């Protein structure tokens, strides 16, 4: 058994930085052709384009906000013209927010819901006509959605919402040969190093003794994207070092 994604065509939202970038590079290195999107032009986008070129394959970086229906339509059209169809959709784009619930403004509630739940709704629905039989839809949730955490009630509500969305879509889309699953990361250290006290706290809490990396998440995403997971549907896989 070998994890190969050669010939697979993937859309990964929010790939310019952090976990999404790790997922894009992981899928591309395993042989997939990848379209990814981001909101902000930056050096991170340029350097990702450079790395993808070095890996080789048919990859595209598209500026598109997943919370905007017109931009999602344009993104899906880009996928259609450059890839033709899709075998994998990874919903990684998301925003985090720390606000005490009692002070949470309605605008901030809506911003987080529109990005973290509205985006996956729009992208999944609009991409459906492009999905091939056997395609894999993967939502990036969060470990805190099931355990809870102060100051992030709105964020955790959206991530828990993805679990419900997944369970229902697994049943609704399964008969069409589509699989839908969640990957729920614990604390992942991305480009910005965690402050020393945060790292020490997590090192004590996490049995494996370290924070996760984008590559740790990308490995599980690659498994769910591959045919090795062909009978896994409606599941949430935690990637949290056993926290
Ligand atoms: P980052 O903030 O580092 O990166 C987010 C990426 O998504 C960026 O490329 C950003 O691009 C893009 N993005 C955000 N909103 C949108 C949007 N509306 N449309 C298009 N692109 C968008 O996040 P992380 O890598 O830390 O997190 C990635 C995912 O993993 C999120 O869903 C997060 O909730 C989840 N997660 C993260 C954990 C962690 O410890 N880091 C733990 C558990 C879950 P741009 O800057 O251009 O907007």
From TrEMBL:
GO terms for molecular function: oxidoreductase activity, acting on the CH-OH group of donors, NAD or NADP as acceptor. PROSITE patterns: ADH_SHORT (PS00061). InterPro entries: KR_dom (IPR057326), NAD(P)-bd_dom_sf (IPR036291), Sc_DH/Rdtase_CS (IPR020904), SDR_fam (IPR002347). Keywords: Oxidoreductase. Residues 8-191 form the Ketoreductase domain. GO terms for biological process: fatty acid elongation. Belongs to the short-chain dehydrogenases/reductases (SDR) family. This is Short-chain dehydrogenase. It comes from Streptosporangium minutum.
């Amino acid at each position: 058994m070998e994890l190969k994604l050669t010939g697979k065509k993937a859309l990964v939202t929010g790939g310019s930085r952090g976990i999404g970038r790790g997922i894009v590079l992981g899928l591309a290195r395993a042989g997939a052709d990848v379209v990814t999107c981001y909101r902000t032009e930056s050096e991170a986008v340029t350097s990702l384009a450079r790395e993808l070129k070095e890996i080789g394959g048919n990859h595209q970086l598209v500026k598109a906000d997943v919370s905007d229906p017109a931009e999602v339509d344009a993104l899906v059209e880009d996928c259609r013209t450059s890839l033709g169809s899709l075998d994998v959709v990874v919903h990684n784009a998301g925003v985090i927010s720390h606000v005490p619930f009692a002070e949470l403004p309605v605008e901030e509630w809506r911003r987080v819901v529109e990005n973290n739940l509205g985006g996956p709704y729009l992208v999944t629905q609009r991409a459906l006509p492009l999905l091939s039989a056997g395609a894999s839809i993967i939502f990036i949730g969060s470990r805190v959605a099931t355990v809870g955490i102060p100051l992030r009630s709105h964020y955790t509500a959206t991530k828990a919402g993805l679990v419900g969305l997944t369970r229902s879509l697994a049943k609704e889309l399964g008969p069409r040969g589509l699989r839908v699953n969640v990957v729920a990361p614990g604390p992942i250290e991305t480009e910005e190093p965690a402050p020393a006290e945060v790292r020490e706290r997590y090192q004590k809490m996490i049995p494996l003794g370290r924070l996760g990396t984008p590559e740790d998440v990308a490995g599980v995403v690659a498994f769910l994207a591959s045919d090795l997971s062909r009978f896994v549907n409606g599941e949430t896989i935690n990637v949290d070092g056993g926290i």
